[in-house]
Amino acid sequence: FVTQSEKRGTLLLLFLVFVLLGVRILLAQQSVKTPHFTAQNNALVADTAIQQKPRVAKSIKTDQPIELNTADTTLLKQLRGIGSGYAKMIVNYRTKLGGFYSKEQLLEMYRFPAETYAKIEHQLWVDTAYIHKILINQSSIDQLKRHPYIRYFQAKSLYDNRLKMLEQRYNALDDLVEDRDVTSQFIKKIAPYLSFK
How many whole angstroms separate alpha carbon 58 and alpha carbon 153? Predict the structure, then answer.
């Protein structure tokens, strides 16, 4: 059995619950129109920001020929299988070498996949006019050994043999003296990078 005052109290409590729910719904609708920095609104703003974030365009892959000694990373990324990482690797290795004389030199790079090279080799070509030459008659041992193909003992041998020559200079590739460090295979490898001026 419920008394009259208990009935009134229950009705008053239900009325207050409905009023509070109505106020909460009105505030929620108003906060969607003008977001405030509350915990709920931060989540709403974050969702909206994600949706409005500009999409990064994927690089379009091409079958056009690309010259290795002048291509920048943007152009290299257009090759199939070449992303930002490999494009930067190619440019960095090209800089250290002084340019490519053969597209096969890509396979010398650390962890460059042969499968990727097989996909792109038909698109690649090399203009050797862009190679930065080593002035072998003017370079010190330190300058020579900076090239990735030339180790210290090879640089020292090239330098010492030059000083032993009558004119103290190399005039042509045939003047390079073969020894334990400077082999014919080594000479063939560095030949495109040498200038005898």
Answer: 47
Residue type, 57: A
- What backbone phi and psi angles, to 5 degrees, belong to 195? -120, 135
Using an 8 Å Cβ cutoff, are 124 and 103 in contact? yes
Q: Which two tokens stand for residue 9?
A: 């109290």
Residue-wise pLDDT for 142-193, tens only, equals 999 999 999 999 999 999 999 999 899 999 999 999 999 999 999 999 999 9
| Cα–Cα distance measured from residue 155 to residue 139, given in angstroms and rounded to the nearest whole number | 9
Classify strands 134-135 and 194-195 as parallel, antiparallel or unpaired.
parallel
Q: Which two three-digit tokens encode residue 71?
A: 């291509």
Q: Which is more confident, 86 or 2?
A: 86
